[in-house]
Predict the structure of DMT family transporter.
Amino acid sequence: MPLDAVDRPYLGIWLRVLSGVLFTGMLVCIKAVSDEVPVGQSVFFRSLFALLPIVVFLALRREFPQGLATRRPLGHALRSGLGAAAMFASFAAVAVLPVAETTLLAQLTPIFMALGGVLLLGERFTWVRALAMGLAMGGMAVLVLPNVGGASQSGQLVGYLLAVLSAVLTAGALLTVRRISRTETPGAIAFYFILVSALAGLATLPLGWSALRPEVLSLLVLAGLLGGAAHIAMTLAFRYAEASRLAPFEYLALLWPVLADWWLFDIPASYHFFLALPLMLAGVVLAALEGKRLKWPLRR
């Protein structure tokens, strides 16, 4: 927890739940326009309008623009590039997958972070990490393998691969954050990531963008505002509560995508989704709690 944080766990939990609702709303908007709007165009509008709540938040904290000064431009470039690529992959995945399945596969990010910490940062490969990875990968296999094979399911399989790729890229981005956060503020890290994502989306303009109907434009603007607000809520959640207290609420965060698929897109969650859910989230929560609840008693 940051040094300037206040221990207000109930507020942190509420903000974590709110961020899950906001992120779900963002993905619902992107999925709703995915048949009409190319991925790059969606990334541009989502990022452009996410800047508004981020800038307002930083201004209220008196961190704009002075808080954007950086001593690690290359670190920001790497983090932002990985994050932008993850957003492209995620939006491409949600175009062909249910929102719930895309969100569930995004939960693999802590697992890939744990693996990256071992391979790239020299962290110890403990039995806890091994068990967490085994559970999460087992859950992913339960979700994906039934859809392997068959021409009619090839698009869905590509969606699974894109969702997993998004989790890998997000893990790489967050591992980079570990390094640059020693000298860079959270506001600067968030601002440059969103700015680079907007520029990356804009770079796809020569590939062909769609003429936007007013209702489609409204959904893209809403996706940006919801995404920016979700990022703020998530940041504040970890400021007010320890990660170990928030980890169990990853389960609740998946309720909203399931309901959104059912009510808005008439896509009920599959049997394989409910089989994969406890395995994957057990692995994710175990990885998140490793450094808190398992190591602390040993140190004591």
